Amino acid sequence: MESLSKEDFLEGQLLLIDKPLRWSSFQAVNKLKWAIRKKFHLKKIKIGHAGTLDPLATGLLLICTGKFTKKINDLQGQAKEYTGTITLGATTPSYDLETAVDETFSIAHISDALIQKTTTGFIGNIEQTPPVFSALKKDGKRLYEYAREGKEVAIKKRRVTISEFEITNIDLPNVDFRIVCSKGTYIRSLAHDFGKALHSGSHLSALRRTKIGDYNVNIAMDPNVFADILLETGSI
Fold first, then answer.
1. Which residue from 48, 43, 51 is spatially nearest to 67, judged by alpha carbons?
2. Of 153 and 146, which is predicted with more confidence?
3. What's the CA gap between 165 and 147, in Å, rounded?
4. Using CA atoms, how far apart are residues 21 and 24, in angstroms rounded to an integer?
5. Active site residues
6. What are the residues whose beta carbons fall under 8 Å from the beta carbon of 57, sequence distance 6 or more?
7. How many CB atoms neighbour CB 118 within 10 A?
8. Residue 93: which region, alpha, beta or left (left: phi > 0; alpha: psi -120 to 50)?
9. pLDDT digits 0-9 by tens, 29-69
10. CA dist 97 to 15, 54, 91, 93, 100, Å?
């Protein structure tokens, strides 16, 4: 591993982090920030991530330090690859496992062939409605705040691009997938809409971000491991 100095972090580093399950992206950034500040006795350092991952998702988080924080917007615009699982036959208000099942549906009519055929309708430029349980703002307030208050709110659809949508395994009610998509795509919304297209219901039950542009999670590091190595050896 490369030995990085205080000046290296201040000048700018791009760090590939594998976000653990149930961590927020903010927690991952804070873990690195704490370790760097402690190691080099810094009062402050610029640090931020290039694209949020939900707490129930794992995988690649690009974290920039120092002057590299100026690159965040460009990094956010790159295509992203995800793998995960859609569970058919039930919906949740959050479109994932953050909330409990609110409605169940039959999946007796769903075949492997129908699942494969349905994916084609989601490839290309599509419109989707972001989940009401999301951090998007409306009138200065996060959507999830409205949702937790039980208030209905109109959410504008957004156009996103799905360049690849591959079904990797089917073991009903679970369907494993791999998706390559543009910035701003909500995989939870896609999972919800996929169930509708199958004349049933569905929700996202697992999600992992595997790539952002040319950066791969295969060489990413757990934030706890990053902190331990940096504080023990100074080499990352």
1. 48
2. 153
3. 29
4. 8
5. 54
6. 19, 21, 84, 207, 208, 209
7. 18
8. alpha
9. 999 999 999 999 999 999 999 999 999 999 999 999 999 99
10. 29, 11, 10, 9, 7
Structural contact between residues 133 and 87, judged by C-beta atoms closer than 8 angstroms: no
**pLDDT of 134:** 65
User: What is the distance between the alpha carbons of residues 57 and 59, in angstroms, rounded to a whole number?
Assistant: 7
- What number of other Cβ atoms are within 10 A of residue 170's Cβ? 16
How many C-beta atoms surround the C-beta of residue 128 within 10 A? 20
- How is residue 160 written in tokens? 């996103």
Distance CA 160, CA 18 (A): 25
pLDDT of residue 156: 84
DSSP bridge pairs for 47: 65
pLDDT of residue 99 exceeding 90, the answer is yes
Residue for token digits 């959410």? 155
Q: Which two tokens stand for residue 120?
A: 């084609």
5-34 confidence digits (pLDDT tens): 999 999 999 999 999 999 999 999 999 999
